[in-house]
Predict the structure.
Amino acid sequence: MFDLPPRPEYFSPSHQAFRHSLRDFVAREIAPHVNDWDEAGGFPRELYRKAAEIGLIGMGYPEDLGGTPADLFFGIVSAEELARAGSGGLQASLGSHGIALPPLVAHGSEALKRRVVPAVLTGEKIAALAITEPGGGSDVAALRTTAIRDGDNYVVNGEKTFITSGMRADFLMVAVRTDPANRGPGGVSLLLVDGDTPGLSRTELKKMGWWASDTAHLHFDGCRVPMANLVGEEGRGFKAIMHNFNHERLMMATLACAYAEACTNEALAWARERKTFGAALSERQVIRHKLVDMVARIESARALVYDLAFRLQSGLGAADDLVARCCMAKVVATQAMQFCADQAVQILGGMGFMRGTKSERIYREVKVMMIGGGSEEIMKDLAARQLRI
């Protein structure tokens, strides 16, 4: 199998020990079930609790909120090892708190943090981020969902779509416009909306991929949300959202490399086993060349991702340079995933078109990785502006 040795300049013995324990967890609790969960369109809530028990859910969060402090490379290890199961849908929903909680931890009141964060980190509750709107896409500053003050509450009206874990989330971190007169980023705030708030309705969305992840369209119809649920200051939500995106894009780039590796390994195993005209596929020069091209794409993208993580963790580089690198890493890594998924299905031939192979599932999931968290076109344009090209 294609599995390069650890990089000691990035991963300490503690990182490697965590990697091995997580690999065992994935092999025992996740990998045997991913096909069934994909076909069922979801996975048991119990998995959140099991993941919390091994420290996966709380990794990187403050100890006083029930978390376990960890650096960026522990996050990379967790992303890479979960991706070995080859189910982006499961990984997206199991990790939806990873994009929902950081703004709360960074900017929320102590009372709100203590009510929400520990319950999520134990796997008891589920948190989701609700930014995207039907008419907005990547244009976050143009969002239309409003939150207007009325006494001690905000009254929320509007819609959100493509929300990961949106069907069963207990807490929703929602981007709202608290100043309707300000149509730009200055009118945007973040509001924590409880999942049982009257006036909140949810519609399940059917997707090309990520079948195991529940994805929802949310409708807010006069939802009354306490002012105490405001996260940070009014009108300061846009900056928090943009900061959150940097980490999300780094993790998506990490995942893209890992999914590319998962389908490459499946293709390699198939090529060694499959016989054509008296010889294994792996003995055919054209197949070996395909596999080498796949490995080269993965390793090139991964080098960019690891270097970016090191720079972010060490505080190396100006902010605009790091934003540009996040954008470029996501583009390069998702292109590598796209290439490897396509080549893996080609190598598997008819079996690659069958449901139940990692390569078929990852092939269906490529596009959400290239679009989610900022589309490839948006990423390139943002990188160009940050680099003043």
About this structure: The chain is about 50% helix and 15% strand. Residues 102 and 207 are 27 Å apart (CA to CA). The chain has three domains: 13-121, 127-235, 238-386.
